[in-house]
Amino acid sequence: MEAAPGGITSEKARGWRAAGINRVSLGVQSFDARELARTGRKHTAKIVEHEVAVLRAAGIGNFNVDLIAGLPGQTLESWNNSLEWVERLSAPHVSVYMLEVDEDSRLGAEVLAFGKRYGAPDIPSDDQIADFYEIAVDRLARTGIERYEISNFARPGFESCHNLKYWRREPYFGFGADAHSFDGTWRWQNAESIEDYLRGSQPERSPADTTAEPFFLGLRLDRGIDADWSAFQPAVERFIRDGLLEASGNVLRLTRRGVLLSNEVFAEFL
Length: 270
Known about the structure:
This protein is of the alpha/beta class. Helices cover 39% and strands 18% of the residues.
């Protein structure tokens, strides 16, 4: 389950464990007080440290820490401070997301409008964000937390089981409003609003794209994919020449540079 730091108590953690929850993903975003304040988050690094201890005491030692590279005002010093906290907590799993401008968010709308609110002018440049990400890749690897997917890093045996199902195109079922499901052939989405969902509205169904999906999903994995890519041969060969993809027989994977430009690669398969 996912949880926002700042509200995890011993009682809740014990209840989660008793209900069968054995993994918790913490939306930390940053361990820097200034960055957290500017994003409206109420927790502090010390609160996260305390709540990780609470989870462990309740028998939930498998947890994930989310970090965002590119928050307003983020610097090399503050980014390294957040990574130091990850090391201090001995997190078994870490997710590192590079900030993307979303027009539906307050910050994203302000950035697109060239406004000054919400720290919009202080967002690091794309090159800086890429540097922060690369620093995380190297620092986490030195502590035994290896990247296994573009945004996800784990100690051996702590990879996210449910996320791996998505990237490997294995069947899964989603329950509740706006939940998505996949049975290996068809994909469907439940009604977006709770009202429509409770009224029993039928999900929207569409056939899975068995030609393209293995590429734009499977290439997210660090190990790449083992598949016949002849249908995309011109694009694949161009990406290999440009140093974004590398091939060994049928195995195709993103290069280190390709990871940073992965959206450009995936666009060829959509």
